[in-house]
Write a structure and sequence with these properties.
The structure is a homodimer of 228-residue chains. Chain A is an alpha+beta fold. Chain A is built from four helices and nine strands, in the order ββββαβββαααββ. Chain B binds a DNA duplex (27 and 27 nucleotides) through helix 4.
DNA sequence: CCAAAAGTGTTGGGGATACACCCATGA
DNA sequence: TCATGGGTGTATCCCCAACACTTTTGG
């Protein structure tokens, strides 16, 4: 919406604020889940939204994302990546907020949240079941999912969705869930091994079938690797 | 730099502002050029920087980028893409500014700027000759160049650096300049034709050698196309 | 011995790369 | 006729996709 000095809405908002919004993903029960909060105040009271908050003047944007994430989940270290900034004038009806969206990935060992009283209403929700959200958060979530999909195919980002030790089928499953398509087992194994990303570190135990070998990533730092 | 309530620099800045910075590219004389302005005021007086400015409360972030670009160059329509937001606390020593960076591409027919008095000190400069800039603008420029390189290889973005009608060698030259490597002429032609992106629209005239066929893009809207 | 998931090789086709000569025009 | 850049085909290699059976364990 275009506004200028002739428009009565000019200076509808006296100030602009910057905020971060977080798309926090984990694979839970064979589904891609995202962290959602229930809003406590008007104008979106009791609607769902992505977690997030205002950027303080003394913290960098990255620090803000990290702090908000920690305050809401109790998790200190996680893979975090800035996605895109959403800056429509009307995205928040009560004030002018420019939001910088982040994607955060955590593995399924870390999904139990230590929420404080303040942040009690925070939930994991399968992305496929996310309802209409407050603000433009459906748009942000859609953007985040699409970034996640594409980064899976050309980086080692999957390591952030896996526990320290994992079987190859577990890894393949993550690709299948997020890319929504089945992969050929033999070709997948060939590809992953050829990239020389993982070390064998043991064997599974106590399963009622042939136990899988367990692997671990040699490096967990972000790298460009063509996978598909 | 981390700051908290115990730190004397807490609330050093009372407000935060959001701004856009523009990395405007064109191919000029077989080099990738970027638009630079000379800063008029302290603390970076007479240093060079990327063009840009504060976001107003009544305009979206995209609109701001478009307006700033128009005010500084007189150009109304150009390919524009948001890159990344830079949010370090200390990036501007005089106040807290979060900057949303954009890349803008223009073709070499449009490089003559209609600058007003206010924006007189604006220049094209080869990226290879860019000096140390104000703020964190070298970092922003580096990011923009790397995005441009990668997008060249998997989208049709090159159409924004070419005039309406162009020869295939002209197009190949752009790839070679930006990617900094030579390409095989026959393989390049094969690849481009196989993608079915362009139409033949005439022939060059008045050159002291065999005239090239001229082509035009069928669609100039952003598309994903694997080129290399 | 049965159920369940792990693990293992080969083949064919398509796209990428490497490479050298003739063509059309203006001066 | 010469200088300049435009335009053209083929052979090779490598990577990707398709595909089915055997192995190992717990119950």
């Amino acid at each position: 919406m275009k506004k200028n000095k002739k428009n009565p809405e000019f200076k509808k908002y006296k100030y602009s604020f910057a905020a971060v919004d977080l798309a926090v993903f984990a694979i839970i029960k064979n589904e891609l889940n995202v962290l959602m909060v229930k809003i406590k105040y008007e104008p979106f009271k009791s609607k769902m939204s992505l977690p997030g908050g205002r950027i303080r003047t003394y913290e960098s944007v990255d620090e803000c994302a990290k702090r908000e994430f920690y305050e809401e989940t109790g998790i200190k270290n996680a893979y975090m990546e800035q996605l895109y900034s959403f800056g429509g004038v009307e995205r928040d009806p009560s004030t002018r907020i420019i939001s910088i969206a982040y994607m955060i990935l955590i593995n399924n060992r870390d999904i139990n949240l230590k929420t404080t009283e303040k942040y009690k209403e925070i939930y994991w929700m399968p992305v496929s079941e996310v309802p209409k959200l407050a603000y433009d958060h459906n748009k942000i979530l859609k953007y985040a999912v699409s970034r996640l999909k594409s980064k899976l195919t050309y980086t080692n980002i999957v390591c952030n969705l896996l526990p320290q030790k994992f079987g190859l089928s577990e890894m393949k499953k993550i690709y299948e869930i997020i890319l929504s398509r089945e992969l050929d087992k033999r070709n997948f194994r060939k590809k992953i091994f050829s990239l020389d990303l993982i070390n064998e570190v043991g064997r599974e135990a106590g399963v009622p079938h042939r136990p899988s070998k367990l692997y671990s990533f040699k490096k967990r730092s972000p790298m460009i690797v063509e996978i598909f």
